[in-house]
Specification:
Strand order of the largest sheet: 1-2
Structural class: mainly alpha
Strand content: 5-15%
Order of helices and strands: HHHEHHHE
Number of helices: 6
Largest sheet: 2 strands, parallel
Number of strands: 2
Radius of gyration: 18 Å
Distance between the termini: 34 Å
Helix content: 55-70%
Length: about 110
């Protein structure tokens, strides 16, 4: 978007995937270009809000594009209420979850 000034690091990564993102987004949202423009701004705001520690993780992951496919990752989807009634209940079970080898938890 011409009116936006994005940090070069973000711009390079965004431009690498922009065509596919745009196609998928506009297909999903039936060509809603204003929504696409809002989405681009929202993505950049999320980037700006990211801590430097998380940005460093992002940079390392660029060097290993298949990081999320590695056997070092074991994700689990969990309904907090079904597992431990509440979020504090889930927190009390984190040691158990870690012992099971889970290092990514989607609640």
């Amino acid at each position: 978007m011409a009116d936006l000034i994005w940090e070069p690091e973000y711009l390079e990564r965004f431009r690498r995937h922009e065509g596919e993102l745009r196609h998928l987004y506009l297909t999903l949202y039936r060509g809603d270009v204003p929504a696409w423009e809002y989405f681009q701004k929202m993505l950049y705001r999320c980037y700006e809000d990211r801590s430097e520690a998380l940005r460093e993780i992002d940079r390392r992951r660029l060097e290993e594009p298949g990081w999320y496919k590695s056997r070092a990752m074991l994700g689990m989807l969990m309904y907090a209420d079904a597992f431990a009634d509440t979020l504090p209940g889930v927190l009390r079970q984190l040691d158990y979850i870690e012992d099971c080898g889970v290092n990514y938890l989607h609640l």
